[in-house]
Specification:
Length: 441
């Protein structure tokens, strides 16, 4: 089987997309990924058996609607061209499209017409996401048009995945038939998020926020909250591993304004493979999300990752977080309230035994939310889709058409060897005459 993951994302940093792709590789699929290109990366490369095709760069988060949309449209056109080319060369059995944006699913038009099965994975529910990012209301024409695009996109796909159960119900209400939609959280991958006994900083207490610096993530609230308690806990520091966003300059200004330059440290984003070590070395995880609109329902996978790594975490009492968690596994604060967040930080720092109890409870709690326990459900969904095609193509690494004693042919697919460093040319086919010489086709 042949599959493609398509997303306007940096593949190496995207736990969700990598997890799906590598699960399919383990199942025996040949998997391509079409994604963004980070600075210094080659246009193509291999990551854990997955061929990654990188189409365009995204150096910074866009501040204007035009800049944001223009880059999405450019990626859409380029990805459609690549998908069409690859489909003509050798058809895909499955294309898993990751939104934002929803309309990216239409890049798979030609594969869809040729029988490929399409999954639309809605990481962020777009009308609410756009409204939060650019300050529009649900009564506006733009919002209503985004809902219409959501409906068209869902109708085009063979199955829709929602990022949490609240959004699944929303999608079923306005855009997707119930049997066609299911929920897969952004589960931590147990192969990556494993505790290694990394020691804590001697004599210091480290609070950590990992993620984007977008408004709905509320990092500015966390900086102000920490400023309010820093003198009471002189041995505590706040490390922000920010992957860019519209609040980057705001956070930098707050650090200067509140005299936090030696206590609040802006760290560069780290590769996904390095993130488990960053989390495990923390004493306390901070997830300061706002409850305004989109943030109230956006699930943060960092909570599960902190839990997996044995770190207690402070989170807001948003609708989605109250839906999944309780006070026995996390420390809640009142969303949007920097004073409440400061009190929660101070309590956890002053009462390490309470943090240890939360971490113990969360270790058991998070097992049900691990990728190991939910991987088979995803693979079952894939099987149900690709098997419904009827006579599914069977692709093996090496396949002979010869009968015993006859001249035969062994054909190898274009795989990792074709593009790995050191190969001067792409190996497309090798012919073998049984009992005779082997020649390159």
């Amino acid at each position: 089987m042949r599959a493609c993951m398509l997303g306007y994302t940096f593949y190496e940093r995207d736990n969700r997309v990598r997890r799906y792709a590598e699960a399919l590789v383990d199942r025996g699929f040949r998997v391509d990924v079409i994604a963004l290109q980070a600075e210094g990366q080659a246009k193509q490369g291999w990551v854990s058996g997955v061929r990654v095709i990188r189409l365009q760069k995204r150096a910074a988060r866009e501040k204007s609607k035009f800049s944001y949309l223009s880059k999405l449209l450019l990626f859409f056109v380029r990805s459609m061209m690549v998908l069409t080319r690859e489909q003509i060369r050798e058809p895909y059995d499955l294309i898993h499209v990751h939104s934002v944006p929803d309309f990216e699913v239409f890049a798979a038009l030609w594969p869809k017409l040729r029988g490929s099965k399409i999954i639309l994975d809605i990481h962020d529910i777009i009308p609410e996401f756009y409204a939060s990012k650019f300050g529009i209301g649900p009564e506006t024409f733009t919002f209503k048009m985004l809902v219409m695009v959501e409906r068209w996109s869902a109708a085009f796909a063979d199955h829709v995945i929602a990022a949490n159960h609240i959004w699944e119900e929303r999608l079923k209400t306005r855009s997707v038939a119930g049997s066609k939609c299911s929920t897969f959280l952004n589960y931590p991958d147990g192969r990556l998020f494993q505790r290694k006994g990394i020691p804590k900083r001697s004599g210091r207490i480290t609070l950590v926020y990992p993620g984007s610096l977008n408004y709905h993530q509320g990092v500015d609230l966390a900086v102000r909250a920490f400023a309010g308690i820093k003198d009471q806990v002189p041995n505590a520091d706040f490390h922000i591993y920010g992957a860019g966003g519209e609040l980057l300059e705001v956070v930098k200004s707050l650090i200067v304004e509140l005299d936090l330059h030696d206590r609040v440290l802006l760290k560069p984003p780290v590769a996904l493979d390095e993130m488990p070590g960053v989390l495990e070395s923390a004493d306390l995880g901070i997830v300061p999300k706002r409850s305004n609109g989109f943030g109230n329902e956006a699930f943060s996978t960092k909570i599960l990752e902190f839990m997996t790594m044995g770190v207690p975490v402070v989170i807001p009492d948003t609708a989605v977080d109250r839906h999944y968690f309780n006070g026995e596994v996390v420390k809640f604060f009142h969303a949007n309230d920097e004073n409440s967040l400061a009190e929660a930080m101070l309590f956890m720092i002053k009462n390490p035994e309470a943090g240890a109890a939360l971490a113990r409870n969360a270790t058991e709690f998070v097992k049900q939310y691990s990728w190991n326990n939910n991987r088979d459900a995803y693979l079952g969904l894939v099987d149900s889709l690709v098997n419904s095609r009827g006579a599914a193509r069977k692709t093996e690494p090496l396949e002979t058409t010869a009968l015993p004693g006859q001249a035969g042919e062994i054909t190898g697919p274009r795989g990792p060897l074709a593009d790995r460093p050191g190969c001067a040319e792409e190996i497309k086919e090798t012919r073998l005459t049984l009992g005779g010489p082997m020649s390159k086709g």
